[in-house]
Amino acid sequence: MQEAKGRGEWSSKLGFILAAAGSAIGLGSIWRFPYIAGQSGGAAFVLVYFLLVFTIGISLMMGEIVIGKKGRLNAVGSFRALGGSRWSLVGWGGVIASFIILSYYGVIGGWTVAYIFKSFTGLMGVSAAGDVARIFQDFISDGWQVVLYQVLFMAGTVFVVFRGVSGGIERLCTFCMPALFLLMILLIGRSVTLPGAMEGLSFFLKPDFSKITGKVFLSAMGQTFFSLSLALGVMIIYGSYLPDDSNILGASAQICFLTFLVSLMAGLIIFPSLFAFSLEPGAGAGLTFITLPVVFAKMPGSVFWSASFFVLFFFAALTSSISLLEVVASYFIDALSWSRRKATLVVGGVITLMGLPSALSQGAVEITVFGLSFLDAADFFASNILMPVSGFFTVLFLGWWIPDAVVDGVVNSGTPGMKERVWLWILKIIAPICILVIFIAGLRW
Ligand code: TRP
């Protein structure tokens, strides 16, 4: 991706897919997905998530990419160019939600950094699951430590966005993503062969339909938006760098498939080992950080595996956090003509400060909102409220305001076929109704 004032283009089709998949695959798949699934009924949640990813998720992703490709500007600018200034409000909503998400994303990103170091300093020396849970609890209640690592993670994010995404990070991702993939396959092998693993597999894969409620649907929809980086304008910006003749359907399908696959793999590692060590699936935000070390400890060369995993996990989180900072920073660069340096430093600094209550809310200081910790409340508000609202208006915009441009953007001036017509109907009717119903049902029930 080029950062010059003249608009750049992706150097290759793969470059786009890697950057978009890099944004999508991150804490959402490896940290958020297992813990939300654990709290929301296991396999029933996985099933609903699957359905939503491959209907609303993929349609919205294609739609956002088209908005960028047609508008050729950032989220706010592209909405304004295609629909007038009223619609630019949707882009604005995305900028605000990105602020909120990145504020606590940096906190969890910091946890991954901390666990790289902890792999060498005793984390692998303990064998009982209870000890690992205690180490985690002690860590997140230690405000200084948590904030230190949060600041480190945010500094890394600012550094990369400041330097421009094209050089190092893109090359790094080409290595990190496949490496993460291979390591996860290895971990699945270890996890499912633990004694007692079967119970975990059935919790994760055998749906109990009685557990499907409006709340489960709302959580799954929030997870769909969050994990695919939708509704905040990331895909609009990335789409704006696409050449005219790109295959958007194919690219979106690949990104959705990869994200779903990594989430599934994370679940296949975490749930079997969870049940094997009699831990609680509903344990909440710490799930990944409590379960994985126990699995590593059961492998020869545990320190090596643990450190490698958390390094790759950190890079997966970093390629997502840079896309969040890019949304906000690019707005300040375009609209207020700030320099890239000023925008990334100021915005990054403000977001880090905004993350402090989330960082401290995990045990250091009691900060709750509606009975949720500050971090959970920020996450709920951004993922289950702001994102669905912004997603709702985005599909309305696509399906009813600019349907011709939308179809044209996908078929590249060719004739629309069956696939495109089905997609348009999803955008016009199915997606808005589903989002609305899930949103209302989820909040009430
Ligand atoms: N999808 C990322 C993850 O799963 C998080 C993320 C990055 C995101 N950019 C986004 C979420 C934009 C929503 C919108 O970790």
Keyword list:
445 residues; mainly alpha; two-stranded antiparallel sheet; 77% helix; disordered N terminus; binds tryptophan
Proportion of strand residues? under 5%
Distance between the termini: 44 Å
Mean pLDDT: 88
Based on DSSP secondary structure assignment, what is the total number of beta strands? 2
Low-confidence stretches: 1-5
Helix content: over 70%
Describe this structure in words.
It is a single chain. Helix 3 (43-71) packs across helix 17. Strand 1 and strand 2 (372-373) form a beta hairpin. The protein is built from 18 helices and two strands. Strands 1-2 form a two-stranded antiparallel sheet. By secondary structure, the protein is an all-alpha fold. Bound molecules: tryptophan (TRP). Tryptophan binds next to helix 1, helix 2, helix 10 and helix 14. The site of tryptophan has 15 residues, from helix 1, helix 2, helix 10 and helix 14.
What's the arrangement of secondary structure elements?
Layout: H1 13-24, H2 27-39, H3 43-71, H4 75-83, H5 88-118, H6 129-141, H7 143-163, H8 168-192, H9 197-205, H10 214-227, H11 234-240, H12 248-276, H13 287-297, H14 302-336, H15 340-360, E1 368-369, E2 372-373, H16 374-401, H17 403-411, H18 418-444
Antiparallel strand pairs: 1-2
Helix pairs in contact: 1-8, 1-11, 1-12, 1-14, 2-10, 2-12, 3-4, 3-9, 3-10, 3-11, 3-12, 3-16, 3-17, 3-18, 4-5, 5-7, 5-14, 5-15, 5-16, 6-13, 7-14, 7-15, 8-12, 8-14, 9-12, 10-16, 10-18, 12-13, 13-14, 14-15, 15-16, 16-18
Bound molecules: tryptophan.
